Amino acid sequence: MAVKLKTRRLESLLRIFSVRQFRAKHLRKIAGVLTNPYATWTTITLLALALVGLRIHIVGLQYYLGSSSATEHKLMERERDARIELTEMKDPKKLLLKAQELGFERTNKVIHIPLRDNGYRKGLR
Known about the structure:
This protein is mostly helical. It has helices at residues 2-17, 24-35, 37-90, 92-102.
């Protein structure tokens, strides 16, 4: 019965892979491994361990992505607050109030500093 099973399996492998006779020796080895229960269970166990390892790696990546997205959300909130503060600081009325809170006083003397050539001196180009 086992011999029939081996020959049937070999014939089906030959049909599946459509291999010529000089490669049939390798297929006989494969058929022998497939009928050996110890080799089969060892192969199944190794494949199962590989799948478990991949699953653990995937779960670790999911945790990393979750923490990264939480960090991104916090940074986006900080950026939004900084943009709001920047637009508030551009308003002249709010700047005047902030300066008065900090103790700055308005002066009558204004100093104008002329810029030539976008701030560069002429002889240095």
